[in-house]
Amino acid sequence: MSSANQVRASHILIKHEGSRRKASWKDPEGRVIRSTTRESALSQLKALREDIVSGKAKFDDLASRFSDCSSAKRGGDLGPFGRGQMQKPFEEATYALKVGEISDIVDTDSGVHIIMRTG
């Protein structure tokens, strides 16, 4: 696939009791994730998004501290990807953003995300 059709994005993922895989690098046993409702995951994520949008915090700083994805080690960076590589809602949200924009909350089987398109 030509890189012209690819996008690049970073994200912050908060997992919850409905997530497909109830474990993460910061919660290997999944104890916290199993007891996190989707509502509580959403309110955490909304608060993080507000801090980023208001300029109080940087996306990559918050990603590396709070994201349940292993991409947290890279400030949430997922690298470049093309269509068909990510879950559909995630892909559609990313392609709809302009570079530098941050999505609203996106729901996937993995949990709830905010996405920043970086390329």
From TrEMBL:
Molecular-function annotations in GO: peptidyl-prolyl cis-trans isomerase activity
Disordered, as annotated region:
1-36
Pfam families from the xrefs?
Rotamase
Q: List the record's Gene Ontology CC terms alphabetically.
A: cytosol; nucleus
| Top-tier EC class | isomerase
E.C. no: 5.2.1.8
Residues of the PpiC domain: 4-119
UniProt entry tagged with the keyword Isomerase: yes
Keywords (alphabetical) are: Isomerase, Rotamase
Q: Where is the signal peptide?
A: none
Reactions accelerated catalytically: [protein]-peptidylproline (omega=180) = [protein]-peptidylproline (omega=0)
- What function does the entry list? Prolyl cis/trans isomerase with specificity for phospho-Ser-Pro bonds.
Q: Which family does it belong to?
A: Belongs to the PpiC/parvulin rotamase family.
Name the record gives this protein = Peptidyl-prolyl cis-trans isomerase
Q: Native species of this protein?
A: Rhodamnia argentea
Q: Which gene encodes it?
A: LOC115741155
